[in-house]
Amino acid sequence: MNDNLASQYARDGFVAPIDIFSPDEIARILGEIEEAETKWGDALQGGGRNNAHYVLPVLDRIAHDPRMLDAVEALIGSDILVGGTTLFIKEPETEGFISWHQDARYMGLEPHNWVTAWLAVNDVDEENGCMRMMPGTHKSPLVEHVDTFGEDNMLTRGQTVPDIDESKAVPVIMKAGQLSLHHPRIVHGSGPNLSNRRRIGFAVQSYLGGDVEQQFGKIWAQQARGTKRGIAPVAPRPTEAMRAEDIAFRDLTNDELSKIFYKDAKKTGNW
User: Fold this and answer.
1) How far apart are CA 195 and CA 117, in angstroms?
2) Residue 208 resides in a domain
3) What is the pTM of this model?
4) Percent of the chain scored above 70 by pLDDT?
5) Structure letter (DSSP) for residue 267
6) What is the pLDDT of residues 192-211, one digit of tens each?
């Protein structure tokens, strides 16, 4: 299985779907996320969904689940760090979308021995705005992006790769509990949720190989496997939900991440 993951990743720049959680497991995960949304409301809206694994043990457990790490190890090696995460939620019949972009363009992580993991918490398809990939684009260098700061664009700067031939795009359709892994240079995006269903995904952005270093700004990371690490600051793991000290740490990491995302931007967007 690991050889197949690695060969597909090398060829296409992404691998999906990968079975990770059973229907019962992912149903419990969904229930915990929805319970947290009900209980803490605004604290898990907008920017509060960034690095929420620092405040919600359910998300921390996902990021450190051995099945997730096994799949990642096949692509980046046995030294694995958990970097940032994002809880991506598209409400039914909303216009929010993610424009064509490359993750590596703004992250400042080198070398590109890191991978973004995207877990479907509920079923994702073209109607509710699944990811779309441009296979093979990871084999080329990074390309220039245009900052649009579009109102419905869910990216920080509305960063967009122009002139994409969307006829070559591959939709990443997954059942709840399945995983997608994609390369930092692959061009990808997602459309709006036109359905009457929520679309919930949890992304680890990203799993870092032990040789990866931050070239500008500051990030924290958790050692998930191995001992080698190029990111020195160590992030704690939560033991219970929404502790004050964990919220303060999440907010600190988000402030620093914002500086990275908006580096050299002419303005800042909604964070």
Assistant:
1) 24
2) yes
3) 0.95
4) 99
5) S
6) 999 999 999 999 999 999 99
Amino acid sitting at position 161: V
Q: Are 26 and 177 in contact (CB under 8 A)?
A: yes
Specify if 271 maps to a domain. Answer: no
Q: How many domains does the chain have?
A: 1
Q: What is the mean pLDDT of residues 39-66?
A: 96
Look at the chain and count its residues: 271
Residue 65: give its domain's CATH number: 2.60.120.620
* Interatomic CA distance for residues 224 and 243, integer angstroms: 22
266-271 own/partner pairs: CB under 8 Å, 24+ apart = 266/147, 267/149, 268/156, 269/149, 269/156, 269/157, 269/158, 270/46, 271/46, 271/47, 271/156
User: Rounded distance, CA 165 to CA 84, Å?
Assistant: 30
Average pLDDT on 128-135 reads: 98
Sequence-distant (6+) residues with CB within 8 A of 264 are none
Q: Has residue 266 been placed in a domain?
A: no
Which structural domain range is residue 95 located in? 2-261
Considering the domain boundaries, does residue 268 fall inside one?
Answer: no
Backbone angles phi, psi at 265, to 5 degrees: -75, 150
Measured in whole angstroms, the distance separating CA 162 from the mean position of its chain's CA atoms is 22
